[in-house]
Amino acid sequence: MKKTFAFLLLLALIIMPANAVEREDVKPVKNVILLIPDGTSLATVSMARWLQWYQDPGKPKLNIDPYLCGTVRTHSSNAPIGDSAPTTSCYMTGQPSRTGYVSTYPESDPENDIYPTDPERAFQPLATVLEAGKILKGKATGLVFTCEFPHATPADCSAHSYDRGKYEWIAPQMAHNDINVVIGGGVSLLSEEMEDYLRDNGYGVYRNDLKGMRADTGERMWALYGDREMAYDIDRDPEEQPSIEEMTRVAIKKLSKNPDGFFLMVEGSKVDWAAHSNDPVGMATEFLAFDRACGAALEFARENGETAVVIVPDHGNSGISIGRKDCTGYDKLSKDQLFHQLSLYKLTAEGFAKKLNSVPNAEVQEVFRTYAGFELTPEELDALNNCEDYKNSPIPEGQRKKEDNSSLYSGSLTGLMSHVITSRTCFGFTTGGHTGEEVFLAAYHPQGTLPLGMNTNIELNEYLCELLGMTHDTLDELTGERFARHTEVFKNYDLKIVPAKDGKGSPTLVVRNKKKQLTITPFSNIVKSGKKGEDEIRLNSVVVYVDKNNTFYLPESLRDFLK
């Protein structure tokens, strides 16, 4: 009996996770780095790992591999499959939200809501972990990404909107939210007003200026590349755009100068974009570039001793599989047969499309011999020449026959290139959209208190809060303080909402009493005080306007300026 008990005890100790802890025992840390590979299904990680190992036999594992610790069930408020806006919103706010919502409380959908929602709170901006770290803990904050800066995931950290596409609302919030370091895409989306605000407040601002970013010695910086998104890593000109690894290292170096610590979010944005295009080259190489950024973050964390790292996708995408039904005998193929062709590609589908539009039609086959290791078939050449957005086709636009492509592919040039790339592999796709499977979770904590097992996206937010020495209730309280309805904050004051002069912009809120006046413009942290707006009040959060309910959401403390 004693031997049996001893054996069972030993077995329990062997299988019990060494770092499993109760959630209340999570040790707060000085710095938190959250890394999100957008739209990354587990099969994408497997494909990238195989590609890396095939290309370099000395690297069988990814940087994230020693830190894999569980999965996350990620979803919208009323649907199991979410887009980047509500899924990352939940990581940042602890509240699931609806498709397209950026850190904003969802409208109630009683028949479908996965968790109960409060109809009275619909459209209220929700305080994020980044905002709480800055406001309550004095931490420096940073964003690194490869999409344009107002895109869903970076926006989820630092802006609020029920429509992820309203860049005219989101971009100024991000500029005015006093994020210490922002590096990514979107040169054309940074307005003159935003740049003036940044420069006036001590930021180095760099547009397509790699040398400028590298030479900057300040602690505040915006560095943007590309009119909208940055190039895929494999297509990138390293003399013009930095890698996501370099961007991560630059951000950490600057943010770590803050004695109170920092919160940094790094997004591998275009894994998702490649998945939408069913482009296995883009998916694998973008994830490997992201994994190198993870390596930089983990290296800093291990050396620093006061930093936690959390790595998690926001959702899956494309239903990619290593193996495809019409690829006969795929389950018996060798490593060479499955991954050799993938290793030969030197461009993404988008990269091939751009290359073909930049060279004469006579050089098409040379492009594929050089960058893919094969030539197009006559059928593929015909499909290319009939493709609507192929600029160098010998067939005039009006004479191109889309129906001739129907047996192969009908659509954009990038889409055709994705088909050509995939046709030489045994990878398969079920969709060009998001998918609802759980995503991987990896983490590092200097004291080993990790989020093991299956976590919901709400529980992941709780873990992030606890790393910063807060709780989800702290976020709720901050939401109430910083994003209160203007009708409640200024209940007994004279209120007037003045429409935009051009009829296209957002209105202005004017609040008066007998002696004082506030003029409040949304999507900014600057409030004008005085009858003529001669004085400025600078907030450490932004004011948000929602047209759906004609409401300004703003700090309760603004009322004190009228006393």
What does this structure look like?
The strands form 5 sheets. A 10-stranded mixed beta sheet has the order 5-6-4-3-7-1-8-13-2-14, with helices on both faces. Residues 1-21 have low confidence and may be disordered. It contains 19 helices and 22 strands. It has 563 residues and is of the alpha/beta class.
Shape: globular
List unreliable stretches of 5+ residues: 1-21
Mean pLDDT: 94
Q: Residue share in helices?
A: 25-40%
Number of helical elements? 19
Distance between the terminal alpha carbons, to the nearest Å?
A: 77 Å
Question: What is Rg?
Answer: 25 Å
Major β-sheet strand ordering: 5-6-4-3-7-1-8-13-2-14
How would you sum up the major sheet? 10 strands, mixed
Total number of strands: 22
What is this structure, in a nutshell?
This protein is α/β, with parallel strands linked by helices and 563 residues long.
Topology, pairings included?
Layout: H1 2-15, E1 31-37, H2 42-55, E2 68-73, H3 84-93, H4 129-137, E3 140-148, H5 152-158, H6 167-176, E4 181-185, H7 192-200, E5 204-207, H8 210-215, E6 221-224, H9 244-255, E7 262-268, H10 270-276, H11 280-304, E8 307-311, E9 316-317, E10 321-322, H12 335-344, H13 349-356, H14 364-371, H15 378-385, H16 413-423, E11 427-428, E12 434-435, E13 439-444, E14 453-456, H17 457-467, H18 472-482, E15 484-485, H19 486-489, E16 494-498, E17 508-512, E18 517-520, E19 526-529, E20 535-538, E21 544-546, E22 551-554
